[in-house]
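note to self — DONT lose this again. spent like an hour looking for the file last time. sequence + predicted structure for the chain T wanted, 349 res
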Amino acid sequence: MPILWKSLFPQRASSPDCCGGSLPARIRRALRFAASLRVRKEETNLRGMLTVFRVAHSPLSVQPEIVNVELTNRCNQKCAFCPTGTGTNQRPKGDMEFDTFRAIVDGLTPFTRIQFAGYGEPFLHRQLEHFLDYAATKGLNKRLQILTNLAAVDEQRVRRLLDHPFHKMYVSLDAMTSEEFLTYKRVNQFDVVRRNIEILAADAARRTAVSQQLIVQMVLTRKNQHQREEFERYVRGLGMQPKFKSLNTYMSLASKDRIQEFEIPELSRYDSKRGYSKRCPWPWGGFIVYWNGDVSVCCEDPLGTMIYGNVLQSSPVELLNLATGRCGFRQRYFKDPAQIAICRGCSYA
């Protein structure tokens, strides 16, 4: 009860900042924020009302909606449009320390969605399962997601995955033949990924109850779109959920010819001529934490050009609500997203 009471009636900030302002201004901002939240249907009504109340009452009260956690920026694949895979991501390579992860998790609530996603393959981090177990002690496993290519794990590790608590796992297969896989991923790991998917599916089928959602994903391109129906039949046949995703060429630094070779025009995610809705969830709702604890305002920042703090120096709530870099970003975003490089042409902005 004390925690709930404190959440509903937090103390007012002692000094003004860009996240403060008059009560009417806070209510208007809170309504914009609530409208941008991508929450599950069963949470929308109650959660939305509580969010409006908390933001209107105090700029210190908003918890992150989503946090991307980059366990490592090393990767075992070379995807055609990934900054890490193409070698354009020049940030130093490294793996997240447990103390850094703990600093993130200890400052969140079970309402926050954590994604093990960034600019590397999460399973290259040998402590991933330990991180999952720790997040569960804080009640955060119910909204924790893992994005993986599932090529960096051996059979024993695959068979133990479902022993650890998480909500969803997205596995990128992206092709139904080794040739198409090699064209996009630029590594010969098709058989390994497919084997691991099938081991995971068989292990899930043997268990009496599996709470985790297992999703196999295909990024649709000109090269593989003819395999869409075959992919869906294959995944559903394993008892898993298929998911199709449009190609992300943003921030890849790829040439226009290279993009046109892969991208399906009608599925393009980015258009510089598209207007801005100003309802992106990231300015108010979340951030990405790189392996060394640095925090950027958006997940589409592979080079770390928008870093404005570190979780080892400030809490997640402070980083979301009061950090100078975050507040300045919000002001520029709501004035005109086009003036921000990572927002320019983005479909979310």
